[in-house]
TrEMBL record:
Entry coiled-coil feature ranges: none
Superkingdom as given in the UniProt entry: Eukaryota
Organism: Lates calcarifer
Keyword Phosphoprotein attached: yes
Rab-GAP TBC domain sequence ranges: 80-304
Protein name: TBC1 domain family, member 22a
Molecular functions per Gene Ontology: 14-3-3 protein binding; GTPase activator activity
C-alpha cells in the first residue's frame, strides 16, 4: 500500500496544475481523442529527468530476472510505466505472458499461431448469413474509431481491427460484438506498435513495418484485449447489466462524496445513465485523449480488478473534478453539453496522476464494500 500512498502524495503536489486548468466556454461537441499523443511516457524520446531514468532502471532490473516478480511489477507500474518497457509490462500484467522469462518466446509463438489459426478457421464466415450482421456493424464502426488520428484511418490498420473484433465476437457468443468494444483495441495496438518504432505514432505508416511485426502486433492486441474483456464481459451481454449496475453504483457513490453535485443533477433531471453509460461502455476513452487512456491503463493493469472495479472510483473522481463547472450550469441542456464534452483536450500525465490518486483515496475511504456506497 506504501507505493500507492507515495503516488498519492506525489500527485497531491500536482493538484495546483490541475486546478489552474479552467473549463472552456461552450463549444461544439468534440471527442478529444487526438490532441498531441507525444508525452514523456507515451511517445517520442524527449530527454528523461533523473527521476524518470531511475524509474526506467528499476523496471529494467525487475524485467531482467529469470522470473519477474509480478507483485513488485504491479507496485512499480501503478504510478505509470515508461514507454520503453510498456509493451512487455502490459503483456505480463495482463497475464498474456508468463513471469518465467525462458517460457515467454514459446508462449508468444504458440498464442500468435493460435490467433492466426482462428483467422483461417473463422474469418471467411464473416459473410455467412448468421455472421454478416456482426461483420457489417464492425465494418461500420471501425472508421469511427479515433477518426481524427491518421494512423487509424489506414486501410491495413482498419483490416486488422476488423479481424480482431470479428474473431473475438464469434468466440464470445454470449455478448457478441457491441459498439464500444472497438475502442478497447486501440490502446493495445498503439502500445505494441511502439515495440517496433521510435518515432511519433499518430501519422506513422504501418505499411513500412515488416509483415511479421504487423502480425505480432495484431495477435498480441487480440489476446490482451480478450484478457481485459474477460473481466468485464457482463458490460456487453444482453441489456448490458454490468454497465447498468456500475452506473447505479456511481450515482450512489457520488451522492455520498459530493451531495451538492448529486442534488444539482437531480434538480435539473440529469440521469447518470445519460452521460455515464459511455464512461463505462468505453472506459472513459471518449472523454480523454488517447495518451491519457494509455497512462490510465498502466494503473488499471496494476490495480486488482482495475478495469471492472477501480474504474468506478476513477469515474466518481472524474465527475467531481468538474464540480465547479457543473454547479455553474443552470439547465438540463447546458449540463448535458458540458458532461458530454468535458475539456480534457490538453490533459497529460499530471492530470491523470491526480485523478488516480483521488480515485484511490475514494476506494480506500469506501473500503471496497458495496454497501458503503449507500447512505
Amino acid at each position: 500500500m506504501l507505493h500507492r500512498a507515495a503516488a498519492i502524495l506525489e500527485a497531491a503536489g500536482e493538484c495546483a496544475a490541475l486546478h489552474r486548468q479552467r473549463s472552456l466556454p461552450h463549444r461544439p461537441p468534440v471527442i478529444p481523442l487526438v490532441a498531441r499523443m507525444a508525452d514523456q511516457n507515451t511517445s517520442g524520446t524527449p530527454a528523461m529527468t533523473e527521476r524518470e531514468a531511475s524509474r526506467l532502471d528499476k523496471f529494467k532490473q525487475l524485467l531482467a530476472g529469470p522470473n519477474t516478480d509480478l507483485e513488485e511489477l504491479r507496485k512499480l507500474s501503478w504510478s505509470g510505466i515508461p514507454r520503453q518497457v510498456r509493451p512487455i509490462t502490459w503483456k505480463l500484467l495482463s497475464g498474456y505472458l508468463p513471469a518465467n522469462a525462458e517460457r515467454r518466446e514459446s508462449v508468444l509463438q504458440r498464442k500468435r499461431q493460435e490467433y492466426f489459426g482462428f483467422i483461417q478457421q473463422y474469418y471467411d464466415s464473416r459473410n455467412d448469413e448468421h455472421h454478416q450482421d456482426t461483420y457489417r456493424q464492425i465494418h461500420i464502426d471501425i472508421p469511427r474509431t479515433n477518426p481524427l488520428i491518421p494512423l487509424f484511418q489506414q486501410a491495413s490498420v482498419q483490416e486488422i481491427f476488423e479481424r480482431i473484433l470479428f474473431i473475438w465476437a464469434i468466440r464470445h457468443p454470449a455478448s457478441g460484438y457491441v459498439q464500444g468494444i472497438n475502442d478497447l483495441v486501440t490502446p493495445f495496438f498503439v502500445v505494441y506498435v511502439f515495440e517496433y518504432i521510435e518515432e511519433e505514432v499518430e501519422n506513422f505508416d504501418v505499411s513500412s513495418l515488416q509483415e511479421e511485426a504487423l502480425r505480432n502486433i495484431e495477435a498480441d492486441s487480440f489476446w490482451c484485449m480478450s484478457k481485459l474483456l474477460d473481466g468485464i464481459q457482463d458490460n456487453y451481454t444482453f441489456a448490458q447489466p454490468g454497465i447498468q449496475r456500475k452506473v447505479k453504483a456511481l450515482e450512489e457513490l457520488v451522492s455520498r462524496i459530493d451531495e451538492s453535485v448529486h442534488r444539482h443533477m437531480q434538480q435539473y433531471e440529469v440521469e447518470y445513465l445519460q452521460f455515464a453509460f459511455r464512461w463505462m461502455n468505453n472506459l472513459l476513452m471518449r472523454e480523454l485523449p488517447l495518451r491519457c487512456t494509455i497512462r490510465l491503463w498502466d494503473t488499471y493493469q496494476a490495480e486488482p480488478e482495475g478495469f471492472s472495479h477501480f474504474h468506478l472510483y476513477v469515474c466518481a473522481a472524474f465527475l467531481v473534478r468538474w464540480r465547479k463547472e457543473i454547479l455553474e450550469e443552470r439547465d438540463f441542456q447546458g449540463l448535458m453539453i458540458l458532461l458530454q464534452n468535458l475539456p480534457t483536450m490538453h490533459w497529460g500525465n499530471e492530470e491523470v496522476s491526480v485523478l488516480l490518486a483521488e480515485a484511490y483515496r475514494l476506494k480506500f475511504a469506501f473500503a471496497d464494500a458495496p454497501n458503503h456506497y449507500k447512505r
